[in-house]
Amino acid sequence: MSTEIIQDVLFPDPIGMRLRHGRESAGLSIEQVGQQLRLPVEIIKAMELDDWQRLGAPVYVRSYLGSYLRLVGLPAELAEPAAQAKPTPQLVAMGSSSRLRHALNRTVRNGVYLVMTGLLVVPVYFAARYYQDHNPPQVLTLETSPEMVDAQATAARAPAAPAFDAIVADLPQAAAADATAPGDEPAVAPQSAPSPDPAPMMASMAPFTRAGAPADGLVLRFKDESWVEVLDAQGGRVERGLVESGAERRYAAGQVAHITLGNSDAVDVSFADKALDLSPYRTANVARFTVSSAGEPAPAGN
């Protein structure tokens, strides 16, 4: 009894080679296989050369290769490894050119950086130098400069100017001596000079009162701040603005023709020493009334 020893092939032939052997065993040419499978001849050659990337997506690899395997009597399962096969990555040469390009790129970047820095810094530098040269800074110090010392010494050595009071006091005597001459009558003695120390004038804090306004005319007394507008007979503005508390205004007959008072509750109006009721003239705490030529108030519009 003979024993047959079957040894598995460690390295099976590629699928493309097995397809070609199967085709040749069946006595078929590449053109005949393409006619039977209805595929271009280039696809048949690509499968026999294991060029699966030329077939396109994995679904096409399974379809084309499965049909070819069934035609030559090979297992259809061989199509799956070919469909999942990934393309061999291409090797990129890393020579000295990449280092040179890297150095060149770095040099260009540094040059651009220096140029931009120069464009920004150089104008600022020259502008600062320009202003420093034309406007030198003045140093504040408490020490006395030599020029100041010389000026003080010169002023100390100069003769003192006569006092203003002495000049004024000598004016009457000088005028009298000039006016009296030999053979002439004495001139009239000039008046004495005014006192050099007149009494100071004090500003009055009394309420403003218009000149010529009689005490028995139209009088406005403000108990609080109030806005006022006073017009004359021609429509000209006599006064307009905010009047402070405690102020008083007096107007003679014919001096004003129309008066508007804001915050009229804070204003006392009297005519000929008689208090005037502003109720007929008031609307929303604003009183408007006219003044006749005799100085008597009347409602506005009458």
Bin the strand percentage. 15-25%
The major sheet is characterized as: 6 strands, antiparallel
Portion in helices = 25-40%
Radius of gyration from the CA trace? 61 Å
Number of helices in the DSSP assignment: 8
The structural class is alpha+beta
Which sequence of SSEs, written as H and E, runs from N to C?
A: HHHHHHHHEEEEEEEEEE
* Ends apart, CA distance between termini: 153 Å
> How many distinct beta strands?
10
| Shape label | elongated
Given as residue ranges, the uncertain stretches (5+ residues, pLDDT < 50) are: 1-8, 174-190, 198-213
Averaged pLDDT: 74
Describe this entry's structure for a reader.
This protein has eight helices and ten strands. With 302 residues, it is an alpha+beta fold. Among the domains are: 15-84, Orthogonal Bundle (434 Repressor (Amino-terminal Domain)), CATH 1.10.260.40; 218-299, no CATH class. The protein starts with 14 loop residues before the first helix and ends with a strand.
